Amino acid sequence: MNYNLKPMKYFVDVVQTHGFSSAAKRNYVSETAVSSAIRHLEDDLGVQLINRTPTSLSLTASGQFFYLRAVQVLEAYGEIWRHPEQQPAGLLRIHFLQGLEADAAAFAEHLGPSRQLSFDEEPFTDAFTRLLAHDYDILIGFELAFSGNTKLQAFPLRKVGFDVLCNTQALATQPDAPTLSHAGKLYLQHWKSTGIADIQAVMVNKYAHNGWGYASIAQVNSFQAAALAVNFKGGVALVPDDFRVPAHCNNLTRLSPKHLEQAFNVVAAISRDRQELFEGMILKAISSSYR
Fold first, then answer.
1. Exposure string (b/e) for 187-222, b if CB count within 10 Å is 16 or more?
2. Among candidates 288, 277, 269, 230, which has minimal Cα distance to 96?
3. Which residues form the HTH lysR-type domain (predicted)?
């Protein structure tokens, strides 16, 4: 892919000055250089941008569309050079906790095509501090993490359940999965207490019903790591109900206990001091994507 902006600028100048000669003068190059650059641009794009006759020039339909986008690109490029440390106007920074990629995508899909977006996965230990510091704009996470925090505003997106992964070979030696769970480790994604809510304690409390339990708790850095540990070492793991089991994990049995179905709310959270800035946009996206 050609990232040279000079042919794009030549094309914009041809349109704005109504000719190759005037565009060449604007750029202090020959008319042949401008014409050749635009020909190569058309070849790279695979479309004709300009209708050329001996007496006139006009834009094709593709040329009209490309011109509008090219002007935006060149303006943005100029803005970067003028203000290299300034956040682009209109850029919305969406971060999400591990395992909630699909929720971030579903939410972003309904923010509108003109919205500039950036995405990143946010480590749980830093998520709230950075959100309150405006290091990013919106956090997609679990509602239980925001309990009692008056500095954050959370907007419910959907309910999500959790499944239990068991080691298939070990399960075959026990009467049932709850019995198996008491004999080994419970693998949890590492959710450090935020000072707002102890996520691990809440997760374990919701899990330990109807005969389910554990001999000890092991913290790992991701749901994928939890699944791998159970597959090769035994024990059980808690994972979201839409979690994709890693490839080559062929020794896992997946169960969906009733008490963990739709047990948790996924939310979009913002710093409350930016509520006026983002609330209307978030509510509009939610109404169209989750109704």
1. bbbbbeebebbbbbebbbebbeeeebbbeeebebee
2. 269
3. 1-60
- Of residues 22, 39, 42, the one with CA closest to residue 31: 22
What is the per-residue pLDDT across 33-66, written as a single tens digit (0 to 9) for each?
999 999 988 888 888 999 888 888 888 888 888 8
Task: Mark whether 135 and 197 lie in a shared domain.
Answer: no
Distance, in Å, from the CA atom of 243 to the CA atom of 254, rounded to the nearest integer, reads: 11
Q: Which of 28-37, 145-154, 155-164 has the lowest mean pLDDT?
A: 145-154
Tokens of 4: 């040279």
Taking all residues of the chain, what is their mean pLDDT, rounded to a whole number?
Answer: 84
Backbone angles phi, psi at 282, to 5 degrees: -65, -45
Do 181 and 127 sit in the same domain of this protein?
A: no
CB 215 within 8 A of CB 185: yes
pLDDT of residue 232: 95
E strands of 71-151, at which residues? 91-96, 116-121, 138-142
1 in a domain, yes or no?
no
Any idea what DSSP says for residue 200? Answer: H
Number of domains in the chain: 3
Same domain, 144 and 111: yes
Burial of 131 (0-12, 13-18, 19+ CB in 10 A): buried
pTM: 0.60
Q: How far apart are CA 100 and CA 135, in angstroms?
A: 19
Selection from 142, 141, 167 nearest residue 245 by Cα? 167
Strand ranges, E, within the chain: 50-52, 57-59, 91-96, 116-121, 138-142, 152-160, 162-167, 185-189, 216-220, 236-240, 252-255, 264-271
For the cut 50, the answer to whether the pLDDT of residue 291 exceeds it is no
Tokens for 173?
């030696």
